[in-house]
Structures are given as structure tokens and as C-alpha cells.
Design a protein that fits this description.
The protein is α/β, with parallel strands linked by helices. It folds into 3 domains: 3-80, Arc Repressor Mutant, subunit A; 88-165 and 274-298, Periplasmic binding protein-like II (D-Maltodextrin-Binding Protein, domain 2, 3-Layer(aba) Sandwich); 167-272, D-Maltodextrin-Binding Protein, domain 2. It is built from 10 helices and 11 strands. Strands 3, 4, 5, 6, 7, 8, 9, 10 and 11 form a 9-stranded mixed sheet that branches. Helix 1 (3-15) crosses helix 2. The relative contact order is 0.14.
């Protein structure tokens, strides 16, 4: 399976038309069609559903698309790492991160490192812990910022990590004109009959020690979960539109004069730790090694 052919496949999957894809890559349509047919023969699977004027992916094609994107991304990352092996320190650092205000601590390290090595580039990949840990394990990311309930300490045989020394506070994002906003903090009983918007990661039962589920206890089954979210900004818009109350972390949505929203912490207070992790068996590029050294200088190593 050639990298070149995988790029052809991805272009066709994106454009949805073989002729247009061929033109965009300066290939003839028969040449591209033949390459795709050879790829299907090599894999022993039909990858495309061919129509009169368009093509779409089969379930097998969708699987290959995900894997091909990862392969191309890893190839490009490897090429960049080798191109940076020279006297001048340059290259890319890929950092996965959940939504947390504590990323400011990492941004400070980026800023200091960039002043000394301006040719280092930083790339932030947002997502939940499950997606990010998978990318970290595959070498697509150099570092990951994990927020509980992802317990990096339980996976210390696989990951090295440092604790950022800050904690994020869980609470409810709600409208200022809501009667509940008059309270200084929110208890479980306040939430039982309310439509809630909850982070998908926060309520995963696969985590052995999930602080959110522990906080609700048996009352979790009584909640009216009106929806889930991956990015709190989108959930905040839904809260503005009175779709539900957002259960999330503090300091992610700014309180401004014009904002119709406010944040109220949970009671009893619920705080979660923030860690940045890396694979223990990882071979670091020069930029990533410099970044790791700066992490160890600023935070205690685990």
C-alpha cells in the first residue's frame, strides 16, 4: 500500500467525484480510477459506491479513510522531525488538550521557548481524553493535557506526566435571569428536575474513578439529561437559547457585561486535577525534548 495511493484515495473521498479529484491532482481520470481499483484489489474490499456523477464511501472505505488520515499525518510528522535534525532547532510540537483554563500554563512555556527558538511551531489538537490518548499512543501527538476523570496516574507504566498544580472547578453555567442564579452554589437537589447539558467525557462509566458520577452518587439516575456536548462553547450557546443548564468547568466561558450567562460552582465543591502526559517509550524530536525539559523545570516530575 503506497502513501501516494492513500493520498489519491483521501482526495477522492473528500471531493466525491473521481474526475474532479483527478483534475485537482493533475492526473487523468482513467489513471486515477485504475489506482483506486488496484487499491480495492489489494485490500480485498470495495471502498466506493460509484454513482453516475459521484462516489461515496462504503463502510470499509470509511474505515480506510480514518486509518489513511492517521498514516498520512504520521508520515508528515516523521518527515518534519527528520528535517529538524540540524544545527538550527526547528520543527513541530503536537499537543492534545481538553478544554481547560490551565492551558495558560502550557502557553507560557510555549512563549518562552519560542523566544529562544522562533522556528519551533506548536499545534494544539482539541478533543476528549479517549480521542487524544489514542492519538498519543499512535505517535500522532507528542503530549496530552488530561483532565479528570481521565486518571493518568493509573496508567503511569505507559505515560510519564507532570501535574500542572492547578485544579478546575465543576459547576453549572446558566442564564443570569434564571431564578437559580440567585444561589451562590448549586446542590444535587437543585438539578434533579432541570434539563442538563453534560460533557460526554464527564459521564463515562468506563472510568474507574469518575469524580462527576461520584459527586452525584445514586441521584445521577434521576437527572434529566437533555443533551451532551464535546465543546463547552457550543453548550453555552444552547444554554443561552434556554435548551438546558450546562454542567461544565469554570473559567472557560468568560463572564462579561454583555453575557447573559453566569457560573455557579457545585456544592459540595468539586475540583479535578490537570496533568500533561507523554509516552514513556517515546523518542523525542529536538523541539519536543526542549519542551519536556521546560515542563520538568516548571513542574514536579512524576
Amino acid at each position: 500500500m503506497e502513501i501516494r495511493v492513500l493520498k489519491y484515495f483521501l482526495t477522492v473521498a473528500q471531493i466525491g467525484n473521481i474526475t474532479k479529484a483527478a483534475n485537482s491532482m493533475h492526473l487523468t481520470q482513467p489513471t486515477l480510477s485504475r489506482q483506486l481499483q488496484d487499491l480495492e484489489k489489494e485490500l480485498g474490499q470495495k471502498l466506493f459506491i460509484r454513482g453516475n456523477h459521484s462516489v461515496s464511501l462504503t463502510p470499509e472505505g470509511m474505515i480506510l479513510r480514518k486509518r489513511a488520515e492517521e498514516i498520512i499525518e504520521l508520515v508528515e510528522k516523521t518527515e518534519n522531525e527528520f528535517s529538524s535534525i540540524k544545527d538550527t532547532v526547528s520543527g513541530d510540537i503536537f499537543i492534545g488538550a481538553g478544554e481547560t483554563k490551565s492551558i495558560k500554563l502550557i502557553a507560557d512555556i510555549m512563549s518562552n521557548l519560542n523566544k529562544e527558538y522562533p522556528q519551533i511551531k506548536f499545534h494544539i489538537v482539541s478533543g476528549d481524553s479517549e480521542d487524544l490518548s489514542e492519538k498519543l499512543d499512535k505517535g500522532l501527538l507528542d503530549f496530552c493535557i488530561f483532565i479528570q476523570p481521565f486518571d493518568v496516574e493509573q496508567q503511569s507504566q505507559k505515560y510519564g506526566y507532570v501535574n500542572l498544580g492547578e485544579k478546575d472547578v465543576w459547576g453549572i453555567l446558566l442564564r443570569e435571569d434564571d431564578p437559580l442564579a440567585k444561589k451562590k452554589s448549586i446542590k444535587v437537589n437543585d438539578l434533579i428536575n432541570l434539563p442538563l447539558l453534560i460533557s460526554r467525557q464527564a459521564i463515562k462509566k468506563s472510568f474507574t474513578n469518575n469524580p462527576i458520577l461520584n459527586w452525584f452518587g445514586e441521584d445521577f439516575e434521576k437527572l434529566n439529561i437533555a443533551g451532551t456536548y464535546n465543546l463547552i462553547y457550543n453548550a453555552a450557546i444552547m444554554t443561552e437559547s434556554k435548551i438546558g443548564y450546562t454542567l461544565g468547568l469554570d473559567r472557560l466561558i468568560k463572564d462579561t457585561v454583555d453575557s447573559p450567562l453566569c457560573f455557579r460552582p457545585l456544592c459540595p465543591k468539586l475540583e479535578v486535577e490537570i496533568n500533561i502526559a507523554w509516552k514513556k517509550d517515546q523518542v523525542f524530536s529536538k523541539p519536543s525534548k526542549l519542551f519536556l525539559d521546560e515542563l520538568h523545570k516548571k513542574f514536579k516530575q512524576n
